[in-house]
Predict the structure.
Amino acid sequence: MAISDDARGLSIFGKPIVPTKKTKTTIVNVATNMPKTTQYPVPKEVVDERKLVAWTSVRQERWEGELVVEGEIPKWLNGTYLRNGPGLWHLGDYNFRHLFDGYATVVRLHFDTGRLVMGHRQIESEAYKAAKKNNKLCYREFSEVPKHDNFLAYIGDLANLFSGASLTDNANTGVVKLADGRVVCLTETIKGSIVIDPNTLDTLEKFEYTDSWGGLIHSAHPIVTDSEFLTLLPDLLNPGYRVVRMDPGTNERKMIGRVDCRGGPSPGWVHSFPVTEHYVIVPEMPLRYCAQNLLKAEPTPLYKFRWHPESKGFMHVMCKASGKINNIYQIKDLIVLKVASVEVPLFVTFHFINAYEEKDEEGRITGVIADCCEHYADTTILDNLRLQNLRSWGGEDVLPDARVGRFRIPLDGSEKGELFAALNPVEHGRGMDMCSINPNFLGKQYRYAYACGAQRPCNFPNTLTKIDLVDGKAKNWYDEGAVPSEPYFVARPGATEEDDGVVISMISDKNGEGYALILDGTTFEEIARAKFPYGLPYGLHGCWVPKS
Ligand SMILES: CC(=O)/C=C/C=C(C)/C=C/C1=C(C)CCCC1(C)C
Ligand SMILES: CC(/C=C/C=O)=C\C=C\C=O
Ligand SMILES: [Fe+2]
Protein backbone atom coordinates (compact mmCIF):
# COMPACT_ATOMS: atom_id res chain seq x y z
CA MET A 1 0.00 0.00 0.00
CA ALA A 2 1.40 3.38 -0.97
CA ILE A 3 1.19 5.74 1.97
CA SER A 4 2.17 9.35 1.67
CA ASP A 5 2.78 11.03 5.01
CA ASP A 6 3.27 14.56 3.75
CA ALA A 7 0.59 17.18 3.75
CA ARG A 8 0.31 18.16 0.13
CA GLY A 9 -2.15 20.46 -1.49
CA LEU A 10 -3.04 24.03 -2.04
CA SER A 11 -4.73 26.53 0.16
CA ILE A 12 -8.01 27.39 -1.50
CA PHE A 13 -9.52 30.74 -2.35
CA GLY A 14 -6.79 32.48 -0.41
CA LYS A 15 -7.74 31.15 3.05
CA PRO A 16 -4.68 31.29 5.32
CA ILE A 17 -3.34 28.10 6.88
CA VAL A 18 -3.56 28.56 10.64
CA PRO A 19 -1.52 26.26 12.88
CA THR A 20 -3.58 24.50 15.54
CA LYS A 21 -2.73 24.20 19.25
CA LYS A 22 -1.82 20.77 20.63
CA THR A 23 -4.07 20.07 23.61
CA LYS A 24 -5.35 16.82 25.02
CA THR A 25 -9.12 16.43 25.02
CA THR A 26 -11.03 14.98 27.93
CA ILE A 27 -13.68 12.41 27.22
CA VAL A 28 -16.60 12.20 29.58
CA ASN A 29 -19.42 9.72 29.39
CA VAL A 30 -22.41 11.82 30.27
CA ALA A 31 -25.84 11.23 31.68
CA THR A 32 -28.08 13.69 29.92
CA ASN A 33 -31.05 13.44 32.22
CA MET A 34 -30.53 16.75 33.99
CA PRO A 35 -33.78 18.70 34.04
CA LYS A 36 -33.69 21.83 31.87
CA THR A 37 -33.90 24.16 34.88
CA THR A 38 -30.58 23.03 36.39
CA GLN A 39 -28.61 23.72 33.20
CA TYR A 40 -26.47 26.84 33.03
CA PRO A 41 -25.12 28.71 30.03
CA VAL A 42 -21.51 27.87 29.26
CA PRO A 43 -19.34 30.73 30.67
CA LYS A 44 -18.35 33.37 28.11
CA GLU A 45 -14.59 32.79 28.53
CA VAL A 46 -15.06 29.11 27.74
CA VAL A 47 -17.18 29.86 24.67
CA ASP A 48 -14.72 32.53 23.44
CA GLU A 49 -11.82 30.08 23.66
CA ARG A 50 -13.48 27.61 21.30
CA LYS A 51 -12.16 27.32 17.77
CA LEU A 52 -14.85 26.92 15.15
CA VAL A 53 -13.11 24.43 12.92
CA ALA A 54 -16.39 22.54 12.30
CA TRP A 55 -17.81 25.65 10.61
CA THR A 56 -14.61 26.85 8.92
CA SER A 57 -13.78 26.02 5.30
CA VAL A 58 -11.39 23.15 4.74
CA ARG A 59 -7.90 24.64 4.62
CA GLN A 60 -6.59 22.97 1.47
CA GLU A 61 -7.83 21.12 -1.63
CA ARG A 62 -6.48 17.74 -0.59
CA TRP A 63 -4.31 15.80 1.79
CA GLU A 64 -3.42 12.17 2.30
CA GLY A 65 -1.32 10.44 4.92
CA GLU A 66 -1.13 7.72 7.54
CA LEU A 67 -2.38 8.66 11.01
CA VAL A 68 -0.96 7.67 14.36
CA VAL A 69 -3.52 5.50 16.13
CA GLU A 70 -4.08 5.76 19.89
CA GLY A 71 -5.76 2.61 21.20
CA GLU A 72 -6.40 -0.35 18.94
CA ILE A 73 -8.39 -0.55 15.73
CA PRO A 74 -9.86 -4.07 15.40
CA LYS A 75 -7.90 -6.11 12.85
CA TRP A 76 -11.17 -7.18 11.20
CA LEU A 77 -12.03 -3.61 10.23
CA ASN A 78 -10.71 -3.59 6.66
CA GLY A 79 -12.14 -1.20 4.14
CA THR A 80 -12.80 2.47 3.59
CA TYR A 81 -15.19 4.82 5.32
CA LEU A 82 -16.08 7.76 3.08
CA ARG A 83 -17.81 10.86 4.41
CA ASN A 84 -19.16 13.68 2.29
CA GLY A 85 -20.20 17.17 3.33
CA PRO A 86 -20.25 20.85 2.45
CA GLY A 87 -16.69 21.75 3.54
CA LEU A 88 -15.94 25.00 1.73
CA TRP A 89 -18.13 27.99 2.49
CA HIS A 90 -16.46 30.99 0.97
CA LEU A 91 -15.31 32.45 -2.33
CA GLY A 92 -12.56 34.98 -1.76
CA ASP A 93 -14.03 37.39 0.79
CA TYR A 94 -17.61 36.30 0.16
CA ASN A 95 -18.99 33.99 2.86
CA PHE A 96 -21.84 31.61 2.18
CA ARG A 97 -24.81 31.73 4.49
CA HIS A 98 -26.02 28.21 5.08
CA LEU A 99 -24.36 24.98 6.13
CA PHE A 100 -25.80 23.24 3.04
CA ASP A 101 -24.28 25.77 0.60
CA GLY A 102 -20.65 24.63 0.92
CA TYR A 103 -18.71 22.91 -1.85
CA ALA A 104 -18.37 19.18 -1.31
CA THR A 105 -15.41 17.87 0.67
CA VAL A 106 -15.00 14.08 0.83
CA VAL A 107 -12.98 12.56 3.65
CA ARG A 108 -11.63 9.02 3.44
CA LEU A 109 -10.60 6.77 6.32
CA HIS A 110 -8.88 3.69 4.95
CA PHE A 111 -8.54 0.87 7.51
CA ASP A 112 -6.05 -1.92 6.94
CA THR A 113 -5.34 -4.45 9.72
CA GLY A 114 -5.13 -1.86 12.46
CA ARG A 115 -3.55 0.94 10.42
CA LEU A 116 -5.37 4.04 9.25
CA VAL A 117 -4.77 6.32 6.28
CA MET A 118 -6.80 9.54 5.99
CA GLY A 119 -7.36 11.59 2.87
CA HIS A 120 -9.65 14.43 1.95
CA ARG A 121 -10.39 16.12 -1.35
CA GLN A 122 -12.79 18.56 -3.00
CA ILE A 123 -15.31 17.14 -5.49
CA GLU A 124 -14.75 18.69 -8.91
CA SER A 125 -18.40 19.48 -9.67
CA GLU A 126 -19.19 21.94 -12.48
CA ALA A 127 -20.37 24.36 -9.77
CA TYR A 128 -17.07 24.13 -7.88
CA LYS A 129 -14.90 24.37 -11.01
CA ALA A 130 -16.86 27.40 -12.26
CA ALA A 131 -16.57 29.11 -8.87
CA LYS A 132 -12.82 28.54 -8.80
CA LYS A 133 -12.37 29.76 -12.37
CA ASN A 134 -14.51 32.88 -12.05
CA ASN A 135 -14.04 33.49 -8.33
CA LYS A 136 -17.80 33.88 -7.96
CA LEU A 137 -20.90 31.78 -7.45
CA CYS A 138 -22.15 30.56 -10.86
CA TYR A 139 -24.94 28.11 -9.93
CA ARG A 140 -27.89 28.17 -7.55
CA GLU A 141 -26.92 26.47 -4.30
CA PHE A 142 -29.18 25.57 -1.38
CA SER A 143 -29.57 29.19 -0.26
CA GLU A 144 -27.12 31.14 -2.40
CA VAL A 145 -28.12 32.47 -5.81
CA PRO A 146 -25.65 33.96 -8.36
CA LYS A 147 -25.80 37.76 -8.63
CA HIS A 148 -26.68 39.11 -12.07
CA ASP A 149 -24.95 41.94 -13.86
CA ASN A 150 -28.12 43.10 -15.62
CA PHE A 151 -31.82 42.39 -16.06
CA LEU A 152 -31.31 40.28 -19.19
CA ALA A 153 -28.93 38.00 -17.35
CA TYR A 154 -31.53 37.67 -14.57
CA ILE A 155 -34.25 36.64 -17.06
CA GLY A 156 -31.83 34.16 -18.66
CA ASP A 157 -31.12 32.68 -15.24
CA LEU A 158 -34.83 32.24 -14.52
CA ALA A 159 -35.21 30.34 -17.80
CA ASN A 160 -32.23 28.23 -16.81
CA LEU A 161 -33.87 27.48 -13.49
CA PHE A 162 -36.75 25.72 -15.21
CA SER A 163 -34.45 23.71 -17.47
CA GLY A 164 -32.23 22.94 -14.47
CA ALA A 165 -29.19 24.50 -16.15
CA SER A 166 -28.64 27.05 -13.37
CA LEU A 167 -29.07 24.52 -10.53
CA THR A 168 -26.02 23.31 -8.69
CA ASP A 169 -24.40 19.90 -9.16
CA ASN A 170 -22.46 20.42 -5.92
CA ALA A 171 -22.76 16.82 -4.64
CA ASN A 172 -22.26 17.70 -0.95
CA THR A 173 -24.82 15.68 0.99
CA GLY A 174 -23.86 12.03 0.97
CA VAL A 175 -21.95 9.27 -0.72
CA VAL A 176 -23.18 5.77 -1.56
CA LYS A 177 -21.58 2.58 -2.79
CA LEU A 178 -23.76 0.98 -5.44
CA ALA A 179 -24.00 -2.83 -5.57
CA ASP A 180 -21.93 -2.78 -8.78
CA GLY A 181 -19.05 -1.07 -6.93
CA ARG A 182 -19.49 2.47 -8.27
CA VAL A 183 -19.23 5.15 -5.59
CA VAL A 184 -21.53 8.14 -6.12
CA CYS A 185 -21.66 11.48 -4.30
CA LEU A 186 -25.16 12.94 -4.12
CA THR A 187 -27.19 16.01 -3.31
CA GLU A 188 -30.85 16.87 -3.86
CA THR A 189 -30.43 17.97 -7.47
CA ILE A 190 -30.39 15.00 -9.84
CA LYS A 191 -27.55 16.55 -11.85
CA GLY A 192 -25.47 16.55 -8.66
CA SER A 193 -24.79 12.80 -8.85
CA ILE A 194 -21.04 12.40 -9.30
CA VAL A 195 -18.97 9.21 -9.52
CA ILE A 196 -15.70 9.25 -7.56
CA ASP A 197 -12.80 6.85 -7.11
CA PRO A 198 -12.94 5.71 -3.45
CA ASN A 199 -9.16 5.19 -3.37
CA THR A 200 -7.86 8.41 -4.89
CA LEU A 201 -11.01 10.52 -4.36
CA ASP A 202 -10.66 11.57 -8.01
CA THR A 203 -13.86 12.95 -9.51
CA LEU A 204 -14.50 10.47 -12.35
CA GLU A 205 -17.67 11.54 -14.14
CA LYS A 206 -21.22 12.75 -13.82
CA PHE A 207 -23.59 9.85 -13.08
CA GLU A 208 -25.94 10.05 -16.07
CA TYR A 209 -29.39 8.52 -15.61
CA THR A 210 -30.27 6.95 -18.97
CA ASP A 211 -34.05 6.82 -18.41
CA SER A 212 -36.39 9.62 -19.37
CA TRP A 213 -37.98 10.50 -16.04
CA GLY A 214 -36.51 13.99 -16.23
CA GLY A 215 -37.25 16.22 -13.29
CA LEU A 216 -34.70 18.20 -11.36
CA ILE A 217 -34.70 16.84 -7.83
CA HIS A 218 -34.66 13.58 -5.94
CA SER A 219 -34.27 12.39 -2.37
CA ALA A 220 -30.75 13.04 -1.08
CA HIS A 221 -30.86 9.63 0.63
CA PRO A 222 -31.60 6.77 -1.74
CA ILE A 223 -31.89 3.31 -0.20
CA VAL A 224 -28.91 1.35 -1.47
CA THR A 225 -28.49 -2.38 -0.89
CA ASP A 226 -26.57 -5.22 -2.56
CA SER A 227 -29.50 -5.75 -4.92
CA GLU A 228 -31.04 -2.37 -5.62
CA PHE A 229 -31.14 1.41 -5.47
CA LEU A 230 -34.50 2.95 -4.58
CA THR A 231 -35.30 6.62 -4.60
CA LEU A 232 -38.14 9.14 -4.76
CA LEU A 233 -38.60 11.68 -7.54
CA PRO A 234 -40.88 14.48 -6.35
CA ASP A 235 -43.19 15.72 -9.10
CA LEU A 236 -43.58 19.48 -8.70
CA LEU A 237 -45.98 19.96 -11.64
CA ASN A 238 -48.51 17.32 -10.75
CA PRO A 239 -47.87 17.11 -6.99
CA GLY A 240 -46.76 13.64 -6.08
CA TYR A 241 -43.79 11.31 -5.99
CA ARG A 242 -42.48 8.65 -8.35
CA VAL A 243 -40.94 5.70 -6.57
CA VAL A 244 -38.17 4.30 -8.75
CA ARG A 245 -35.71 1.41 -8.64
CA MET A 246 -32.36 1.09 -10.40
CA ASP A 247 -30.71 -2.32 -10.82
CA PRO A 248 -26.98 -2.77 -10.22
CA GLY A 249 -24.85 -2.23 -13.33
CA THR A 250 -27.45 0.03 -14.94
CA ASN A 251 -28.14 3.76 -14.96
CA GLU A 252 -31.82 3.31 -15.66
CA ARG A 253 -34.44 4.01 -13.00
CA LYS A 254 -37.66 2.03 -13.50
CA MET A 255 -40.86 3.18 -11.92
CA ILE A 256 -42.34 1.03 -9.14
CA GLY A 257 -45.33 3.30 -8.66
CA ARG A 258 -46.57 6.82 -8.13
CA VAL A 259 -48.12 8.49 -5.09
CA ASP A 260 -50.31 11.56 -5.52
CA CYS A 261 -50.06 14.15 -2.79
CA ARG A 262 -53.11 14.27 -0.55
CA GLY A 263 -52.67 17.90 0.52
CA GLY A 264 -50.98 21.16 -0.31
CA PRO A 265 -49.87 22.81 -3.55
CA SER A 266 -46.67 20.76 -3.96
CA PRO A 267 -44.94 17.67 -2.65
CA GLY A 268 -43.44 17.64 0.84
CA TRP A 269 -39.65 17.79 1.08
CA VAL A 270 -38.28 14.25 0.90
CA HIS A 271 -34.68 14.53 2.07
CA SER A 272 -34.97 10.85 3.04
CA PHE A 273 -37.53 8.04 3.29
CA PRO A 274 -37.64 4.57 4.82
CA VAL A 275 -38.38 1.06 3.52
CA THR A 276 -39.52 -2.21 5.06
CA GLU A 277 -39.05 -5.68 3.60
CA HIS A 278 -42.13 -5.35 1.38
CA TYR A 279 -42.89 -1.64 1.28
CA VAL A 280 -41.50 1.74 0.35
CA ILE A 281 -42.80 4.39 2.76
CA VAL A 282 -43.40 7.77 1.14
CA PRO A 283 -43.62 10.60 3.69
CA GLU A 284 -45.71 13.63 2.78
CA MET A 285 -44.33 16.28 5.12
CA PRO A 286 -46.22 19.59 5.48
CA LEU A 287 -42.87 21.35 4.82
CA ARG A 288 -43.32 21.50 1.03
CA TYR A 289 -41.21 22.60 -1.94
CA CYS A 290 -42.25 26.15 -2.87
CA ALA A 291 -42.01 27.48 -6.44
CA GLN A 292 -42.22 31.16 -5.32
CA ASN A 293 -39.34 30.72 -2.90
CA LEU A 294 -37.35 28.95 -5.59
CA LEU A 295 -37.53 32.13 -7.68
CA LYS A 296 -36.44 34.49 -4.90
CA ALA A 297 -32.94 35.95 -5.05
CA GLU A 298 -32.69 36.31 -1.27
CA PRO A 299 -33.24 33.30 0.97
CA THR A 300 -36.41 33.08 3.07
CA PRO A 301 -36.25 31.56 6.58
CA LEU A 302 -37.46 28.31 5.03
CA TYR A 303 -35.30 28.62 1.89
CA LYS A 304 -36.94 26.80 -1.04
CA PHE A 305 -39.70 25.41 1.16
CA ARG A 306 -42.93 26.53 2.81
CA TRP A 307 -44.70 25.24 5.93
CA HIS A 308 -48.29 24.25 5.16
CA PRO A 309 -49.86 22.99 8.41
CA GLU A 310 -53.32 23.24 6.82
CA SER A 311 -52.26 20.69 4.21
CA LYS A 312 -51.61 18.08 6.94
CA GLY A 313 -49.06 15.30 6.99
CA PHE A 314 -49.42 11.85 5.48
CA MET A 315 -47.55 8.57 5.26
CA HIS A 316 -48.07 6.42 2.18
CA VAL A 317 -47.14 2.75 2.16
CA MET A 318 -46.36 1.43 -1.30
CA CYS A 319 -46.01 -2.24 -2.08
CA LYS A 320 -42.55 -2.73 -3.65
CA ALA A 321 -43.79 -5.58 -5.81
CA SER A 322 -46.92 -3.93 -7.22
CA GLY A 323 -46.40 -0.19 -6.79
CA LYS A 324 -49.88 0.10 -5.23
CA ILE A 325 -50.81 2.21 -2.23
CA ASN A 326 -54.57 1.88 -2.20
CA ASN A 327 -55.99 -0.24 0.51
CA ILE A 328 -56.37 -3.55 -1.28
CA TYR A 329 -55.13 -7.00 -0.43
CA GLN A 330 -52.59 -8.68 -2.63
CA ILE A 331 -51.28 -12.22 -2.65
CA LYS A 332 -47.54 -12.47 -3.04
CA ASP A 333 -45.68 -15.59 -1.97
CA LEU A 334 -48.82 -16.49 0.00
CA ILE A 335 -48.40 -13.42 2.21
CA VAL A 336 -51.32 -11.06 2.32
CA LEU A 337 -49.86 -7.61 1.73
CA LYS A 338 -51.98 -4.68 2.73
CA VAL A 339 -51.08 -1.16 1.82
CA ALA A 340 -52.12 2.21 3.14
CA SER A 341 -52.12 5.98 2.95
CA VAL A 342 -52.86 7.59 6.31
CA GLU A 343 -52.99 11.04 7.83
CA VAL A 344 -50.44 11.53 10.61
CA PRO A 345 -49.75 14.38 13.05
CA LEU A 346 -47.71 17.29 11.63
CA PHE A 347 -44.00 16.48 11.57
CA VAL A 348 -40.60 17.83 10.53
CA THR A 349 -37.75 15.48 9.75
CA PHE A 350 -34.64 15.36 7.60
CA HIS A 351 -33.75 11.78 8.39
CA PHE A 352 -35.65 8.54 8.65
CA ILE A 353 -33.82 5.99 10.78
CA ASN A 354 -35.48 2.71 9.78
CA ALA A 355 -38.86 1.06 9.34
CA TYR A 356 -40.28 -2.42 9.73
CA GLU A 357 -43.46 -4.42 9.51
CA GLU A 358 -45.44 -5.22 12.64
CA LYS A 359 -46.95 -8.71 12.72
CA ASP A 360 -49.59 -10.47 14.80
CA GLU A 361 -49.17 -13.94 16.40
CA GLU A 362 -50.02 -15.64 13.11
CA GLY A 363 -47.32 -13.63 11.30
CA ARG A 364 -49.81 -11.40 9.47
CA ILE A 365 -48.62 -7.87 8.82
CA THR A 366 -50.77 -5.48 10.84
CA GLY A 367 -48.89 -2.24 10.54
CA VAL A 368 -45.69 -0.44 9.73
CA ILE A 369 -43.38 1.24 12.22
CA ALA A 370 -41.25 4.06 10.77
CA ASP A 371 -38.73 5.91 12.96
CA CYS A 372 -37.17 9.29 12.23
CA CYS A 373 -35.27 12.15 13.85
CA GLU A 374 -38.28 14.38 14.44
CA HIS A 375 -38.18 18.08 15.30
CA TYR A 376 -41.61 18.42 16.97
CA ALA A 377 -43.13 19.83 13.76
CA ASP A 378 -40.92 22.89 14.21
CA THR A 379 -39.13 24.12 11.09
CA THR A 380 -36.72 26.48 12.88
CA ILE A 381 -33.94 23.90 12.78
CA LEU A 382 -33.50 24.63 9.07
CA ASP A 383 -32.67 28.29 9.70
CA ASN A 384 -30.61 27.37 12.78
CA LEU A 385 -28.18 25.72 10.40
CA ARG A 386 -27.12 29.14 9.08
CA LEU A 387 -23.35 29.45 9.45
CA GLN A 388 -23.60 32.76 11.30
CA ASN A 389 -25.77 31.07 13.87
CA LEU A 390 -23.46 28.08 14.18
CA ARG A 391 -20.41 30.36 14.49
CA SER A 392 -21.84 32.89 16.92
CA TRP A 393 -22.92 30.70 19.81
CA GLY A 394 -22.97 32.56 23.11
CA GLY A 395 -23.29 29.57 25.42
CA GLU A 396 -27.11 29.52 25.58
CA ASP A 397 -29.24 26.44 25.19
CA VAL A 398 -30.63 27.20 21.72
CA LEU A 399 -30.78 23.83 19.96
CA PRO A 400 -34.48 23.09 19.35
CA ASP A 401 -35.69 19.83 20.87
CA ALA A 402 -35.82 16.69 18.75
CA ARG A 403 -36.83 13.09 19.40
CA VAL A 404 -36.92 9.65 17.84
CA GLY A 405 -40.32 10.13 16.24
CA ARG A 406 -42.06 6.81 15.77
CA PHE A 407 -44.90 6.55 13.25
CA ARG A 408 -47.30 3.67 13.60
CA ILE A 409 -49.15 3.17 10.35
CA PRO A 410 -52.03 0.71 10.70
CA LEU A 411 -52.76 -1.52 7.70
CA ASP A 412 -56.36 -2.28 8.66
CA GLY A 413 -57.95 0.49 6.63
CA SER A 414 -57.79 3.07 9.44
CA GLU A 415 -57.48 6.63 8.17
CA LYS A 416 -55.01 7.86 10.73
CA GLY A 417 -51.59 6.88 11.93
CA GLU A 418 -49.83 7.82 15.15
CA LEU A 419 -46.62 9.68 15.94
CA PHE A 420 -44.94 9.51 19.34
CA ALA A 421 -41.47 9.49 20.91
CA ALA A 422 -39.95 6.00 20.77
CA LEU A 423 -38.02 6.72 24.00
CA ASN A 424 -37.83 9.54 26.51
CA PRO A 425 -35.90 12.28 24.62
CA VAL A 426 -34.20 13.28 27.90
CA GLU A 427 -32.10 10.09 27.41
CA HIS A 428 -30.31 11.80 24.50
CA GLY A 429 -30.46 15.38 25.75
CA ARG A 430 -33.48 16.25 23.57
CA GLY A 431 -31.26 16.49 20.50
CA MET A 432 -31.52 13.93 17.72
CA ASP A 433 -30.26 13.85 14.15
CA MET A 434 -27.70 12.28 11.79
CA CYS A 435 -28.52 8.63 12.39
CA SER A 436 -27.34 5.20 11.30
CA ILE A 437 -28.22 1.57 12.01
CA ASN A 438 -26.64 -1.81 11.42
CA PRO A 439 -27.33 -2.05 7.65
CA ASN A 440 -28.16 -5.76 8.02
CA PHE A 441 -31.30 -4.61 9.85
CA LEU A 442 -32.52 -2.26 7.11
CA GLY A 443 -36.30 -2.65 6.81
CA LYS A 444 -36.38 -5.20 9.65
CA GLN A 445 -37.35 -5.08 13.29
CA TYR A 446 -34.30 -3.55 15.00
CA ARG A 447 -33.16 -2.49 18.41
CA TYR A 448 -30.27 -0.04 18.07
CA ALA A 449 -29.77 3.30 16.35
CA TYR A 450 -26.70 5.54 16.47
CA ALA A 451 -27.14 9.30 16.14
CA CYS A 452 -26.04 12.71 17.39
CA GLY A 453 -27.77 13.88 20.54
CA ALA A 454 -27.23 16.84 22.84
CA GLN A 455 -25.36 17.67 26.00
CA ARG A 456 -27.02 20.97 26.82
CA PRO A 457 -26.57 23.89 26.69
CA CYS A 458 -25.63 23.76 23.01
CA ASN A 459 -26.56 25.14 19.60
CA PHE A 460 -25.90 21.96 17.59
CA PRO A 461 -26.04 18.23 18.33
CA ASN A 462 -22.78 17.57 20.20
CA THR A 463 -22.89 13.98 21.47
CA LEU A 464 -22.73 10.58 19.88
CA THR A 465 -25.56 8.50 21.20
CA LYS A 466 -26.46 4.84 21.03
CA ILE A 467 -30.20 4.39 21.33
CA ASP A 468 -31.68 1.18 22.67
CA LEU A 469 -35.25 1.17 21.38
CA VAL A 470 -36.22 -1.89 23.41
CA ASP A 471 -35.03 -0.70 26.84
CA GLY A 472 -35.71 2.96 25.98
CA LYS A 473 -32.19 3.91 27.07
CA ALA A 474 -29.28 5.79 25.48
CA LYS A 475 -25.51 5.71 25.98
CA ASN A 476 -23.81 9.00 25.23
CA TRP A 477 -20.27 10.01 24.26
CA TYR A 478 -19.28 13.63 24.74
CA ASP A 479 -16.12 15.72 24.39
CA GLU A 480 -16.66 19.26 25.70
CA GLY A 481 -16.77 21.80 22.84
CA ALA A 482 -16.41 19.16 20.12
CA VAL A 483 -18.72 18.66 17.13
CA PRO A 484 -18.99 14.99 16.16
CA SER A 485 -20.21 13.94 12.73
CA GLU A 486 -22.80 11.25 12.08
CA PRO A 487 -21.87 8.00 13.87
CA TYR A 488 -21.57 5.26 11.26
CA PHE A 489 -22.00 1.61 12.28
CA VAL A 490 -19.89 -1.13 10.68
CA ALA A 491 -20.80 -4.71 11.64
CA ARG A 492 -18.08 -7.20 12.53
CA PRO A 493 -17.96 -9.90 9.84
CA GLY A 494 -19.72 -12.98 11.21
CA ALA A 495 -21.48 -11.06 14.00
CA THR A 496 -24.78 -12.42 15.25
CA GLU A 497 -25.65 -9.59 17.68
CA GLU A 498 -27.10 -6.42 16.15
CA ASP A 499 -24.61 -4.14 17.93
CA ASP A 500 -21.50 -6.28 17.40
CA GLY A 501 -19.30 -3.92 15.44
CA VAL A 502 -17.79 -0.47 15.64
CA VAL A 503 -19.07 3.06 15.28
CA ILE A 504 -16.95 5.53 13.31
CA SER A 505 -17.21 9.29 13.63
CA MET A 506 -15.01 12.29 12.84
CA ILE A 507 -14.65 14.96 15.47
CA SER A 508 -13.96 18.67 15.03
CA ASP A 509 -12.78 19.70 18.48
CA LYS A 510 -12.76 22.92 20.46
CA ASN A 511 -9.02 23.47 19.89
CA GLY A 512 -9.44 23.60 16.14
CA GLU A 513 -8.10 20.08 15.81
CA GLY A 514 -9.79 16.92 14.68
CA TYR A 515 -9.64 13.19 14.94
CA ALA A 516 -11.21 9.96 13.75
CA LEU A 517 -12.95 8.18 16.60
CA ILE A 518 -13.79 4.47 16.83
CA LEU A 519 -16.29 3.38 19.47
CA ASP A 520 -17.22 -0.17 20.38
CA GLY A 521 -20.73 -0.81 19.04
CA THR A 522 -21.80 -2.74 22.15
CA THR A 523 -20.28 -0.81 25.06
CA PHE A 524 -20.09 2.51 23.20
CA GLU A 525 -16.67 3.04 24.81
CA GLU A 526 -13.81 4.54 22.82
CA ILE A 527 -11.47 1.90 21.42
CA ALA A 528 -9.27 4.04 19.20
CA ARG A 529 -8.72 7.54 17.92
CA ALA A 530 -6.35 9.01 15.35
CA LYS A 531 -5.54 12.69 15.18
CA PHE A 532 -5.81 14.51 11.86
CA PRO A 533 -2.97 16.82 10.76
CA TYR A 534 -5.45 19.70 11.20
CA GLY A 535 -9.12 20.02 12.10
CA LEU A 536 -11.65 19.33 9.37
CA PRO A 537 -15.04 20.97 8.82
CA TYR A 538 -18.24 19.24 9.86
CA GLY A 539 -19.45 16.63 7.38
CA LEU A 540 -22.79 15.00 6.73
CA HIS A 541 -23.21 11.42 5.52
CA GLY A 542 -20.95 8.49 4.75
CA CYS A 543 -20.73 4.94 3.47
CA TRP A 544 -18.55 1.90 3.95
CA VAL A 545 -16.62 0.32 1.10
CA PRO A 546 -15.42 -3.08 2.32
CA LYS A 547 -11.99 -4.35 1.26
CA SER A 548 -12.58 -6.29 -1.93
C1 LIG B 1 -26.55 19.47 2.00
C2 LIG B 1 -27.95 19.07 2.08
O1 LIG B 1 -28.29 18.30 2.93
C3 LIG B 1 -28.93 19.57 1.17
C4 LIG B 1 -28.65 20.20 0.02
C5 LIG B 1 -29.74 20.64 -0.76
C6 LIG B 1 -29.67 21.31 -1.92
C7 LIG B 1 -28.39 21.62 -2.55
C8 LIG B 1 -30.91 21.70 -2.51
C9 LIG B 1 -31.03 22.40 -3.61
C10 LIG B 1 -32.24 22.83 -4.26
C11 LIG B 1 -32.06 23.76 -5.27
C12 LIG B 1 -30.73 24.33 -5.65
C13 LIG B 1 -33.22 24.23 -6.07
C14 LIG B 1 -34.37 23.27 -6.06
C15 LIG B 1 -34.75 22.94 -4.68
C16 LIG B 1 -33.62 22.28 -3.87
C17 LIG B 1 -33.69 20.80 -4.10
C18 LIG B 1 -33.96 22.60 -2.44
C1 LIG C 1 -27.08 18.54 10.53
C2 LIG C 1 -28.54 18.41 10.42
C3 LIG C 1 -29.37 18.65 11.54
C4 LIG C 1 -29.00 18.91 12.77
C5 LIG C 1 -30.04 19.17 13.73
O1 LIG C 1 -30.14 19.02 14.84
C6 LIG C 1 -29.15 18.07 9.30
C7 LIG C 1 -28.50 17.71 8.10
C8 LIG C 1 -29.24 17.44 7.02
C9 LIG C 1 -28.66 17.02 5.80
O2 LIG C 1 -28.16 15.99 5.60
FE1 LIG D 1 -29.16 14.02 5.12
Summary: Residues 85 and 482 are 17 Å apart (CA to CA). The radius of gyration is 22 Å. The pocket of fe (ii) ion (ligand 3) is lined by residues 173, 220-221, 271, 350-351, 540-541 (CB under 6 Å). The longest helix spans residues 151-163.
